[in-house]
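Bumping my old thread because nobody answered last time. Still need a sequence for this structure:
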């Protein structure tokens, strides 16, 4: 039963839960109020009945003996006739009064006294009838007078005495009841204070639990939306309590699923767009490089430098073979070094007066992977923006070393370098992905392709000093190509 009620509460609407809280607080207050009202009403009625009984008996006892004795005497002396006598009316009124007192009396002792009063009234009735019979016979004055003196006055005295006893003990009962009422009232005050204290505690508990049951699911959904706002689309809301909140929770989950789906679509489109941009850039670079190389081959041929022509053609062939590499985007370090070596051999023919190079990459790195055409753009950047802008002979050095779970390749030159302001501008443009200048697009291209393939923690780092040179470090994970079995 408890589980059923708990389940019903959890599935209730927010409005119903608020109504539950009102009812939970209202019912104890009503019960305590009703209990106090019933007990006060009962005690007050009982006290009032006893008081009324004493008052009626007191008024009755003061007049009855005197009036009845006098009325009987008037009848005996024939001052009043039987028809004019009020004795019968007085007896009937007395009987009604005694019967009325019986309705007020709860005491057994006083009930016995009322029975005695009834018997006295019966005796008085008998004496009245005797007097009336004697009056009808005549000449029985002495007999009637004896009845009046020896019977009627004695019985009325006994009646009066019994009435006084009734009043006395009724007053005692009133006092006793008053003490009991006072004790009861004290107890009721104590019970009421305890009940209201309990209601206050219950109110505190309800005022905590009910709002908590309403706000807790909303807070959980808020935490989920906060995580979503921070970019975490793996979270889901598991709220099941509350009809409206459950609908909201399901809607939030559906929204997150849709956002996640749209984000994946955007990522896929961005990847495709970036790859298209990189392929376009590569297509723009290669024809330009090919044009310059062929132009060099032409003037070498015209100069009769057959060996150099053959060497350049072989280097050019090796360069494009490595560039194509069967359409693969990720190649071995060994293949990438061959590609950049071919490029440097070609460029050294053209810039032999101002450029020399050195490649010092250990063989232990040969089988690690690297995005195709990563080093060549950095070497080209070193040549055109570093060496050519410096007077005299310059040198480009390619080196590498392995760390724990990653390795680093460096392209260094002793060219003109960059000023601190220019270095900060270049680094910010690459980091913030806003390559507004064409001369740094090659660096941006390389960095983005590394991050795209291996993650944001990898990429290039640039250091430069004006008139000293520039160093570009490439950080890559130690990833080995997994060959498929045939």
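Sorry it took so long. Here it is:
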């Amino acid at each position: 039963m408890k589980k059923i009620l708990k389940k019903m509460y959890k599935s209730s609407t927010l409005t119903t839960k608020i109504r539950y809280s009102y009812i939970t607080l209202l019912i104890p207050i009503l019960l305590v109020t009703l209990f106090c009202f019933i007990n006060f009403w009962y005690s007050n009625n009982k006290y009032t009945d006893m008081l009324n009984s004493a008052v009626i008996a007191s008024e009755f006892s003061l007049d009855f003996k005197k009036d009845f004795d006098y009325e009987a005497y008037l009848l005996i002396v024939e001052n009043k006739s039987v028809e004019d006598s009020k004795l019968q009316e007085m007896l009937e009124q007395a009987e009604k009064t005694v019967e009325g007192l019986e309705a007020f009396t709860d005491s057994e002792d006083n009930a016995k006294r009322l029975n005695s009063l009834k018997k006295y009234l019966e005796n008085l009735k008998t004496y009245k009838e005797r007097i009336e019979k004697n009056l009808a016979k005549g000449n029985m004055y002495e007999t009637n007078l004896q009845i009046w003196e020896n019977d009627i006055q004695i019985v009325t005295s006994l009646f009066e005495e019994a009435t006084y006893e009734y009043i006395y003990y009724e007053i005692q009962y009133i006092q006793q009841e008053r003490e009991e009422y006072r004790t009861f009232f004290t107890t009721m005050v104590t019970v009421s204070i305890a009940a209201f204290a309990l209601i206050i505690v219950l109110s505190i508990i309800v005022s905590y639990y009910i709002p908590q049951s309403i706000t807790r699911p909303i807070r959980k959904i808020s935490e989920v939306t906060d995580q979503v706002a921070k970019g975490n689309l793996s979270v889901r809301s598991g709220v099941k309590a509350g009809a409206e909140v459950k609908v909201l929770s399901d809607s939030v989950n559906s929204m997150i699923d849709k956002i996640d789906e749209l984000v994946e679509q955007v990522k896929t489109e961005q990847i495709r767009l970036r790859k298209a941009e990189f392929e376009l850039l590569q297509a723009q670079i290669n024809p330009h490089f090919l044009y310059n190389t062929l132009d060099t081959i032409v003037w070498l041929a015209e100069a009769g430098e057959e060996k150099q022509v053959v060497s350049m053609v072989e280097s050019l062939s090796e360069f494009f073979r490595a560039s194509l590499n069967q359409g693969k985007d990720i190649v071995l370090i060994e293949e990438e070094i061959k590609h950049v070596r071919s490029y440097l051999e070609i460029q050294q023919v053209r810039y032999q007066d101002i450029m020399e190079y050195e490649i010092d990459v250990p063989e232990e790195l040969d089988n690690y992977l690297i995005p195709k055409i990563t080093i060549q753009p950095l070497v080209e950047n070193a040549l055109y923006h570093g060496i050519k802008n410096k007077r005299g002979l310059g040198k480009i050095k390619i080196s590498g070393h392995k760390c724990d779970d990653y390795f680093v390749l460096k392209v260094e030159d002793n060219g003109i370098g960059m000023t601190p302001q220019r270095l900060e501008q270049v680094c910010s443009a690459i980091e913030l992905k806003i390559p507004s200048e064409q001369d740094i697009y090659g660096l941006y291209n390389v960095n983005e392709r590394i991050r795209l393939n291996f993650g944001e923690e990898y990429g290039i780092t640039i250091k430069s000093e004006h008139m000293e040179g520039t160093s570009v470090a490439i950080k890559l994970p130690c990833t080995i190509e997994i060959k498929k079995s045939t």
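Residues 4 and 140 are 94 Å apart (CA to CA). Let me know if any region looks off to you.
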